[in-house]
């Protein structure tokens, strides 16, 4: 049975499961446990039990069992059974760590996706604002053209109601000459 151990750099290293027969493994475990700093333990607990699913409790239970097993001097079948339980607990802890790592990666991808949506939406809003400004100026121009058209039609109607100057001037000349003739005729009659 192989177990996965996470090194300080965060990479996962596959190592064969050590035999409990050798006391050097226990001695190495004792030294490694002493080397873990309190801050590292707290950091790992916070990373593991981020949302209160009980992973920290499972990790604490595993750590206590491991310490108890490391400091026991006994090579009995009960110690072998306890060792097997530790390996099972370690597999659960590794599975939990993998799960949280996957969740973290998924959340990062989701954040990137939301950032992409935000940039696309921002561009769409900017484009819509510029299109709206262009439509407003076009509408203003169309209103101005329409108002000019209305004024033109009103003036054209007014002009159509009144006769042109040259025919009117011609009529006035005729009427004036006709009036002069009538005056002359009246003067002759007088």
Automatic annotation (TrEMBL):
<dbReference type="InterPro" id="IPR008501">
    <property type="entry name" value="THOC7/Mft1"/>
</dbReference>
<dbReference type="GO" id="GO:0000445">
    <property type="term" value="C:THO complex part of transcription export complex"/>
</dbReference>
<keyword id="KW-0539">Nucleus</keyword>
<dbReference type="Pfam" id="PF05615">
    <property type="entry name" value="THOC7"/>
</dbReference>
<feature type="region of interest" description="Disordered">
    <location>
        <begin position="163"/>
        <end position="190"/>
    </location>
</feature>
<feature type="region of interest" description="Disordered">
    <location>
        <begin position="1"/>
        <end position="24"/>
    </location>
</feature>
<dbReference type="GO" id="GO:0006397">
    <property type="term" value="P:mRNA processing"/>
</dbReference>
<protein>
    <submittedName>
        <fullName>THO complex subunit 7 homolog</fullName>
    </submittedName>
</protein>
């Amino acid at each position: 049975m192989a177990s996965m151990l996470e090194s300080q750099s965060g990479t996962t290293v596959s190592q064969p499961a050590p035999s409990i027969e050798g006391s050097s493994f226990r001695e190495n475990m004792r030294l490694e446990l002493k080397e873990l700093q309190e801050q590292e333990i707290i950091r790992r607990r916070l990373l593991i039990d981020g949302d209160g699913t009980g992973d920290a409790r499972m990790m604490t239970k595993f750590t206590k069992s491991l310490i108890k097993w490391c400091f026991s001097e006994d090579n009995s079948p009960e110690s072998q059974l306890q060792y097997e339980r530790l390996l099972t607990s370690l597999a659960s802890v590794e599975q939990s760590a993998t799960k949280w790592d996957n969740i973290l990666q998924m959340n990062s991808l989701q954040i990137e996706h939301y950032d992409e949506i935000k940039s696309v939406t921002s561009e769409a809003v900017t484009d819509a604002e510029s299109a709206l400004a262009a439509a407003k100026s076009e509408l203003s121009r169309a209103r101005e053209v329409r108002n000019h058209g209305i004024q033109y039609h009103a003036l054209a109607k007014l002009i159509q109601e009144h006769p042109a100057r040259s025919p009117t001037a011609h009529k006035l000349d005729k009427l004036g000459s006709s009036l002069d003739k009538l005056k002359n005729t009246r003067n002759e009659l007088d």
